[in-house]
Amino acid sequence: MTMPKPIRIVGGGLAGLTLGIALRRLEIPVTIDEAGNYPRHRVCGEFISGRGQESIARLGLREMFDETGVIRAHTAAFFSTAHSTPPRPLPSPALCLPRFKLDAALAGKFRELGGELNEGRRAAVEDFTEGVIRASGRRAQTKEHGTHWFGLKLHARKVALTADLEMHFSPQGYVGLCRLADGEVNVCGLFRRQAGENLPANSRELLRGLPGSPLRERLASAEFDETSFCAVAGLSLRPQRAVERPEICVGDAITMIPPVTGNGMSMAFESAELAVAPLAAWSRGEISWAAARQQIAQTCDEQFSRRLRWAHWLQRLVLTPALQNPLTFLAARSDGFWRMAFERTR
Ligand SMILES: Cc1cc2nc3c(=O)[nH]c(=O)nc-3n(C[C@H](O)[C@H](O)[C@H](O)COP(=O)(O)OP(=O)(O)OC[C@H]3O[C@@H](n4cnc5c(N)ncnc54)[C@H](O)[C@@H]3O)c2cc1C
């Protein structure tokens, strides 16, 4: 029997580590190069919802999630500067887990299965030859239609939430408050800055909300874990197609779904799962690299294109300041609007 060909993955985030774990379970030699180190905080709402939960179960990772302290979110509430909704039941529960724990747990599982994980190793662009997968996350985009998008996140305690997930919209962007285990709450926001406008001197103040807002009130007595603060800039919210990529990509390296949907992590798990069979076939010499690339890209595009389109429009609507109050007013009165938005974006 011929030896399986080795696979190298660039990027040890959710998509890269999940793919690495699944390939190691098939005894394929896998190396992951990760520019950073574990554990580390990441800008993320830490709210996993949608079909990625089924991928997690099929890939045998449920138990690892439970052991790492995952909790389930059952309700969500929405706030604009003038209106709020009562807590609404989520159409299906979401998983909430800090990235600080999740990425490190996946890295541990990959190593336990015999994978080689090189921390602190950054790959170069020319490294994407046959046998190398791009799982290096979003491609930085400095501005989109004159707007720079950036994300901030901080963990806090002593925050009395009305729902497991609270979404607070303001003219600057939005902040999501997500309940985590042991009394912790993730405070994560996406904000805009126009070209030429400077970042506020203390940008993390944006996470506390405008004076007089429900968010400011909610966080009035919060104790922040300053070590958890992180920021990310250069976010692109425009959907991209996998077939247009020259390399085999998984996760945000294909495209980034607008964060307001809380579906990016799900797409990372789903795309990793979709890539396993074609990559295993390439590793065993049954198909060419080009055929594996085409299969993976086509399946990802089929699976994600509809939700990406809906997410693009939803994000535009909820981040248009003039629409935030009417939309929250509508969501407070009609369950249908918010259920439809939830279901179409995952
Ligand atoms: C503000 C905000 C809020 C969000 N909220 C949510 C949410 O609530 N729910 C949700 O599901 N999703 C959310 N997301 C999206 C989610 O964080 C991403 O979709 C997810 O992290 C994608 O996983 P990934 O593995 O593709 O990329 P990443 O997790 O970004 O991992 C990529 C890895 O590649 C490494 N890397 C990059 N370049 C190189 C290189 N050249 N060599 C080696 N390593 C490299 C990086 O260090 C990183 O570890 C949010 C995103 C933002 C910005």
CATH topology of the domain at 7-40 and 52-70 and 98-139 and 238-317: FAD/NAD(P)-binding domain
Unique ligands: flavin-adenine dinucleotide
Q: What is the class of the domain at 7-40 and 52-70 and 98-139 and 238-317 in the CATH system?
A: Alpha Beta
Q: Architecture of the domain at 7-40 and 52-70 and 98-139 and 238-317, CATH level 2? A: 3-Layer(bba) Sandwich
Mean pLDDT: 92
Low-confidence stretches: none
Q: Strands across the major sheet, in which order? A: 3-5-4-9-10-11-8-12
The CATH superfamily of the domain at 7-40 and 52-70 and 98-139 and 238-317 is FAD/NAD(P)-binding domain
Total count of helical runs of at least 4 residues:
9
What is the alpha-carbon Rg in Å?
A: 20 Å
Work out the strand percent: 15-25%
Number of strands: 13
End-to-end C-alpha gap: 42 Å
Protein model, in words:
The chain has 346 residues and is an alpha/beta fold. The chain has a domain at 7-40 and 52-70 and 98-139 and 238-317: FAD/NAD(P)-binding domain. It has nine helices and 13 strands. The chain has helices spanning 14-25, 52-58, 62-67, 99-112, 214-218, 264-283, 289-318, 321-333, 335-344, and strands at residues 7-10, 30-34, 47-48, 71-79, 88-96, 116-119, 132-134, 147-157, 165-170, 173-179, 185-194, 223-233, 248-249. Strands 3-5-4-9-10-11-8-12 form an eight-stranded mixed sheet. Strands 6-2-1-7-13 form a five-stranded parallel sheet. A hairpin with a 2-residue loop joins strand 9 and strand 10. Helix 1 runs parallel beside helix 6. The longest helix has 30 residues, at 289-318. Bound molecules: flavin-adenine dinucleotide (FAD).
